[in-house]
Amino acid sequence: MKNKNNFKAFIKYFLLVVFAIITLFPFYWMIASSLKSSFEVIQTPPTMVPDKFMWSNFSTALAMAPFGRYFINTIIVTALSIVTTVVIAILSAFAFSHLEFKGRDLIFSIFLASMMIPGEVLIVTNFKTISAMKLMDSYTALFLPYMANVLYIYMLREFFLKIPKQLYYAAKVDGASDWKFLWKIVVPMAKPSIITICILVGINSWNAFLWPLLVTNSDNMRLLANGLTAFQSDVGNRYELLMAASTIITMPIVIVYMFLHKKIMNGISIGGTKG
């Protein structure tokens, strides 16, 4: 029995290692290619480790395109997206969990049903709305249509529902308003879920591609993902520069996820489990 359990454990960890290598290899190849010379990066058979580390590829890539501007744009849009999405999610979740009003459950059910609609279906409508509001090529256009996210509202609502009603009634007896109860009691208790939402919104905003491509026209308003696409057409077959630019764009969000992935998992499990 002991040998059988050891064999099962060996198979389990062996498969985990194999899948980890498959997952991480593209990232390693991107970084390794970014440090190769223009000849070595297309060499056959390919080299797994650069013969000479070409750190100058990063400075060359940064000099060929305004990645500094792209970084600023992406940081601004990410920050605005996080703030607006989290505030709307908190207020909506509190309304659907603690406030009593006619049609509350029906409205929330409709909200949940809207999650089945693919986001691509709404792009044309959102584009026409942004164009009619004359917001094209602006920061507002980049985050406005996605401020309200039903998934995040649902996550917070499930957490808010676990807060005992007696606590709410006690706060009302002490003279606390709904607004004060929300920000002084509910929000601090929901900190893990809120942090998770901030991280998820930040990742989605950082990696946004299709929508920013549609609503921006000038180079000054490009985000990192769009800037990388334009950079690809500029450098042509200079793959080492393209990999260097990809590494510059990818590594910040990878590092953030590496440090905060436990908070993401904890927040999702807390917010998605009721009772």
TrEMBL record:
GO terms for biological process: transmembrane transport. Keywords: Cell membrane, Membrane, Transmembrane, Transmembrane helix, Transport. Residues 71-260 form the ABC transmembrane type-1 domain. It is found in: Cell membrane. It holds the Pfam family BPD_transp_1. GO terms for cellular component: plasma membrane. The keyword Transmembrane applies. The keyword Zinc does not apply. Gene3D superfamilies: MetI-like. It is a multi-pass membrane protein. It comes from the Bacteria. Its main location: membrane. The chain crosses the membrane at residues 12-31, 70-94, 106-127, 139-156, 241-260. Belongs to the binding-protein-dependent transport system permease family. This is ABC transporter, permease protein. It comes from Clostridium celatum DSM 1785.
